[in-house]
Design a protein that fits this description.
This protein is an alpha/beta fold. The chain is built from 8 helices and 7 strands. The protein has helices at about 15-25, 40-50, 60-75, 100-120, 150-170, 200-210, 220-230, 235-240; strands at about 5-10, 30-35, 55, 80-85, 130-135, 175-180, 215-220. A 7-stranded parallel sheet has the order 3-2-1-4-5-6-7, sandwiched between helices. Helix 1 (about 15-25) links the parallel strand 1 and strand 2. It is globular and about 50 Å long. The chain starts with 6 loop residues before the first strand and ends with a helix.
């Protein structure tokens, strides 16, 4: 897929992986819109990149998603690519936390439910000439770890949704891509050891290279090895990440 002269929406685009995608795609002469819940982060992203169109939107709020749709429709008419990047990770042990009702609901909503709903809502805006959906999942969608049970489950759900969406859109001009990152150096992983982390820029370079070559499933760096191990020796793959 040619990644130039496109209109691209990135959720969770004000920092980390999302902002790295935005900056890389601006360099390719695209029109890039980022959305997120934090107005201050959006303002900082815009001050760094004046070409960015920033929209405050909580993708778990139906009214705000409808407003985002109206903004995109009125200003651009259509979009070429939706990058579902928004995500949060909470680490807890279920037996040790007596009240997780809202925490679990929020984590599932942001990492899975809202992304499925947003994708469905924006499908009418996707170009029927050069259209794509890019879902950012995780190696943890395939090989979970014990410390983030809901995050892993939600990413596994998004991994499955990506495949079924690809089935449903087969025969249309809309391509569906999945990016499975390794451990990335972002605010979400700040408390993790530095060893093994990759920068958001390295992830984005790998992902855009894969999209350009038409690779619909794009494991990033160490994830490639982990998925190979999982295919050949599943128990070993689970053991590698189980206690992390």
């Amino acid at each position: 897929m040619n990644l130039n002269d496109l209109t691209i929406l990135i959720t969770g685009g004000s920092s980390g992986i999302g902002l790295a995608f935005a900056e890389a795609l601006l360099e390719r002469d695209n029109r890039v819109i980022i959305c997120g819940r934090d107005s201050e982060k959006l303002a900082r992203a815009h001050s760094r990149n004046r070409q960015l169109d920033t929209v405050r939107c909580d993708i778990t709020d139906a009214a705000e998603v409808r407003e985002l749709f109206r903004h995109l429709a009125s200003r651009y008419g259509q979009i070429n690519i939706l990058i579902n990047n928004a995500g949060i990770q909470r680490q807890y042990k279920l037996l040790e936390q007596p009240d997780l009702w809202h925490t679990i609901a929020e984590e599932f909503s942001i990492n899975l439910v809202a992304q499925v709903q947003l994708t469905h809502h924006l499908l009418p805006l996707l170009s029927r000439e050069r259209g794509a959906i890019v879902n950012i999942t995780s190696a943890l969608a395939v090989v979970p770890k014990q410390s983030a049970p809901v995050y892993c489950a939600a990413k596994a759900g998004l991994h499955s949704f990506t495949r079924t969406l690809r089935y449903q859109l087969r025969g249309t001009p809309i391509e569906v891509f999945e990016v499975l990152p390794a451990l990335v150096d972002t605010a979400m992983t700040r408390d993790r050891p530095e060893k093994g982390k990759i920068s958001p820029q390295r992830l984005v370079d790998d992902a855009l290279r894969g999209i350009t070559k038409g690779r619909h499933t794009i494991p990033i760096e160490r994830t490639r090895l982990l998925l190979l191990i999982h295919r050949l020796w599943p128990r070993l793959a689970y053991a590698i990440l189980r206690d992390s």
